[in-house]
Amino acid sequence: MSKYTEDDLKKELETQEYEYGFYTDIEADKFPVGLNEDIVIAISKKKNEPQWMTDWRLDAFRIWKNMEEPDWANVNYTKPDFDALSYYSAPIQKKQLDSLDEVDPELLKTFEKLGISIGEQKRLSNVAMDIVIDSVSVATTFKKTLAEKGILFMPISEAIQEHPELVRKYMGSVVPKTDNFYAALNSAVFSDGSFCYIPKGVTCPMELSTYFRINEGGTGQFERTLVIADEGSFVSYLEGCTAPSRDENQLHAAVVELIAMDNAEIKYSTVQNWYPGNKEGVGGVYNFVTKRGICHNHAKISWTQVETGSAVTWKYPSCILKGDYSVGEFYSIAVTNNYQQADTGTKMIHLGKNTRSTIISKGISAGHSHNSYRGLVKVAKNASNARNFTQCDSLLMGDLCGAHTFPYIENKSASSQIEHEATTSKIGEDQLFYCNQRGIDTEKAIALIVNGFSKEVLNKLPMEFAVEAQKLLEISLEGSVG
Amino acid sequence: MELKDKLISSFIAFENNGNVDLDSAVHAIRTKAIQNFEAEGFPSKKDEEWKYTNLKSLLRQDYSLFNKGENNVDYNTIKPYIISDIDSYNLIFIDGVFNSFLSETTHDESDICVLSAALSKPKYNILIDNYFNTVAADKNSLSALNTAFTNEGAYINIPKNTIVSKPIQILNFSTGSEKNVLIQPRNLIMVGENSHVQIIERHQNLSKNHTFTNAVTEIFVNKRAIVDYYKIQNDTDNSSLIDSTFVQQKQHSVASVSTFSFGGKLTRNNLEFQHEGEHITSNLNGISILNKNQHVDSHTLVEHKFPNCESHELYKGIYADTSTGVFNGKVIVRQAAQKTNAFQQNNNILMNDGATINAKPQLEIFADDVKCSHGCTIGQLDESALFYMQSRGIPKKEAKALLLYAFGNDVIEKIKIPQLKTIITGLIADKLGVNLGFDL
Predict the structure, then answer these.
(1) Do A422 and B377 touch (CB under 8 A)?
(2) Cβ–Cβ < 8 Å for B192, B200
(3) pTM
């Protein structure tokens, strides 16, 4: 067997093609490019939204107009031209669908390519799915089974129609319209997304999942997810994303809001695999996402993310630990290759008493990529006995990439205990030597080390997703993860 | 008139009355610096580097910018602030003016004298041209301000192969009898190949009026030289200090800067290390013990540009009452700096609610074959350790003080001058309000 070295691995990484880079030719209903109040109203009209929603969007649009695009993140990119984007694109559906069997066969083929065969899934796995292509939710599975438990899981456009009281109360309560540039933009133009409500005391019997895909060129995807877990409930939520390979940079600016009431628990996992651009760094998705959850008393929110795609990632899933004894967790693996750039991390805001948070962040950089961890741990004066543990490790492959850490720790409480540690290293020659010496060849050894490096986070993924995440790591770092 | 405008408008008068030839390079440097300052102004909270430190209250006051004559201070007044039980060279400045009567300088083995002489005498021209404002240039608006008004400070030039026989103390006193004063000391320190020097620096306000010190120190450490630099910051509650120190190191040199911040209303330390060769070691140590409404901001930067270098950073903080501590440690490892070992550690204890610590330990790494780590903790004293000591008859206050002393001991142990160690221990005991019951 030929000798497999780190250089070989690097070469493989560089030449690895994006597996999901196909484009499906589905007839799409696409808005003209540009953004103004008329477009916002048109999106709202298209969705047949009530007046309050239209006003809310317009308000957000006016706020956005007065905001400036942030540039503090440690990433370089050509800023998107917001007037050259189309803000709405939907696969044309002939009529209202009654069942999945009537879905456009082209669409179903897309799902099959993605490895999500809805039909098969119905029988075999235990995952309820909401699939969002470009901007519109096209299929939601298992609706009935969930309805028996009183769980609402539907596209947010439907929720606005059917459960306006819930949407109106909670939308924007965690991520206000004024929060940041992209959140304001999303509030104005979001076209769809998922909505989920778990009633009091209900443990959701299956994983809920949303699959996002950008299909049409020249569009931006702006989806909005709202998950509400009422008192004492539990839900595990999964999110996956892919896009076709294109030379242009596509914009994805989503907002995710989680609300965990007293004693509730939300587990939110993301496998993000947007098109990362080609080897020279041309094309790829700009992924500018605002994700935030609020925890009431004894509640828990856990974010797990595997970030392998996108040309530029700018994403900080956060927890506001408002209630006493609430818990926030953040587990992340970010893999960047070629010219990808990722500036990601979390914010843990401790407000309640006896709150706890854990942050585990693993960054792997290869090629010419740059990977930054940026996190905030903030403990308010009255948040007594707050506890935080942060660990961010970076693995560098090759000498052209970079790994950066920007942790912010702000503490005003004397009874809090905060630990932060970070390390940066490459795959050690001594580690490889140790493995070789015990009869493990270099390829397997690298696989072993990278796997071990990421394991803490991979272990946190739900079973159903762990398989896919493993696969994704394989794609991004082929030959290293077994 | 705002302080910024006042400073800018007084610049011409300063240049005309100054001791520097208007055709000289120094004049050109100063003029450029005031232009930079005018363009940038004082930093505001919007500036990422000043996110946690607000200068507003400091800038609102009116300061006397130039001291007229030599203010007389007798030896007994300043004696408590000098480490008198060691033989040392002393450079004593009163309100920014050198006091030759109280000082002890030399030109024998090395030049240990004052910057104003070096700036004005032609024989120093070549050194001034090559070193003055080379590492401090274009760093930030406050060091530009200092450069523009550079007039006085320590000038230390240690030639090759010299071990300076005794430590050097640089002391800045302010008397400010009539008014609030702004003083801007500037130190230039050059250490030749294979030489060794120990320097202790201190700022002390002797009056009830506010003193605002904006100090800049440039240190050049040549091949295989060793420099130990200690900063004692235990000023009164009506003193503010912005202290910028820039260190440039050549191959195989070792430079250590230790900062002891116990006093002052607002203290900001900017400490930067630049490497100009391989096998360099940089050590950054610090202890901050604060109470009342004090604020200390420690900003450090180590930039690794060459292979096989090391940096070790250790900062400890103890914060009580409504004091605020800021730690912003940045380590950059450039692509060429393979085999770098960079370690950074920051430990903090908050004594009560209301005290604040803002920590931002940053790593920016562009090279792959490196060992870099940073750790940052915020916590309390170990309750069981406290209980253990109390159960053995040690009063709670003393037990606490002992534990806190032990917490800071890692840094204290790095002091290489025994007398200084005793003094620092004393200052810590004072600050904690106890008698530690042992000497070192």
Answers:
(1) no
(2) no
(3) 0.82
What integer is the mean pLDDT of A392-397? 85
- The whole-angstrom separation of Cα A157 and Cα A134 is 14
CB atoms within 10 A of CB B404: 22
Three-state DSSP string of chain B = CCHHHHHHHHHHHHHHHCCCCCCCHHHHHHHHHHHHHHHHCCCCCCCHHHCCCCCHHHHCCCCECCCCCCCCCCHHHHHHHCCCCCCCEEEEEECCEECCCCCECECCCCEEEEHHHHHHCHHHHHHHHHHCCCCCCCCCHHHHHHHHCCCCCEEEEECCCCECCCCEEEEEEECCCCCCEEECCEEEEEECCCCEEEEEEEEEECCCCCEEEEEEEEEEECCCCEEEEEEEECCCCCEEEEEEEEEEEECCCEEEEEEEECCCCEEEEEEEEEEECCCCEEEEEEEEEECCCCEEEEEEEEEECCCCCEEEEEEEEEECCCCEEEEEEEEEECCCCCCCEEEEEEEEEECCECEEEEEEEEEEECCCCCEEEEEEEEECCCHHHHHHHHHCCCCHHHHHHHHHHHHHHHHHCCCCCHHHHHHHHHHHHHHHCCCCCCCC
Asked if residue A479 belongs to a domain, the reply is no
Cβ-based contacts of B369 with chain A (< 8 Å): 399, 426
The CA R_g of chain B, rounded to the nearest whole Å, is: 21
Range of the domain at A175: 17-441
Tell me the residue type at A382.
N
| DSSP state letters, A421-454 | EEEEEE--HHHHHHHHHTT--HHHHHHHHHHHHH
Domain-located, residue A458: no
pLDDT confidence of B432, banded at 50, 70, 90?
A: confident
pLDDT band at A482 (very low <50, low <70, confident <90, very high): very low
Query: Count of CB atoms within 10 A of residue B91's CB?
Result: 29
Nearest by CB to A408, from B352, B356, B360: name it.
B360
A26: in domain: yes
Q: Does B372 sit within 8 Å of A424, measured CB to CB?
A: yes
Shortest distance between the Cα of A385 and any Cα of chain B, in A, equals 10
- Number of domains forming the structure of chain A: 1
pLDDT value of position A399: 78
**Pairwise CB contact (< 8 Å): B357 & A414:** no
Residue B14's Cβ-side half-sphere holds a number of Cα atoms within 13 Å equal to: 21
- State whether B350 and A413 contact (CB < 8 Å): yes
Which of B359, B363, B375 is opposite residue A424, by nearest beta carbon?
B363
Q: Tell how strand B211-221 and strand B181-183 pair up.
A: parallel
Which residues in A281-314 are b (16+ Cβ under 10 Å) and which e? bebbbbbbbbbbbbbbbbbbbbbbbbbbbbbbbb
Sign of the torsion angle spanned by Cα atoms A42, A48, A51, A54? negative
Residue B118 CA to residue B188 CA, distance in Å, equals 10
Q: Determine, for residues B377 and A420 on separate chains, whether the beta-carbon distance falls below 8 Å.
A: yes
Residue A473 lies inside a defined structural domain of this protein: no
Chain-wide mean pLDDT for chain B?
88
Tell me the chain B residues in contact with residue A405 when contact means C-beta distances shorter than 8 Å: 361-364, 374
Is the ipTM reported for this complex over the cut 0.90?
Answer: no
Instruction: Return the structure tokens found at B337.
Output: 């700096």
Find the range with the poorest average confidence among A451-460, B145-154, B400-409. Answer: A451-460
Q: Searching chain B, which residue's CA lies closest to the CA of residue A383?
A: B353
- The domain spans of chain B are 3-432
Q: Which two tokens stand for residue B349?
A: 């204890």
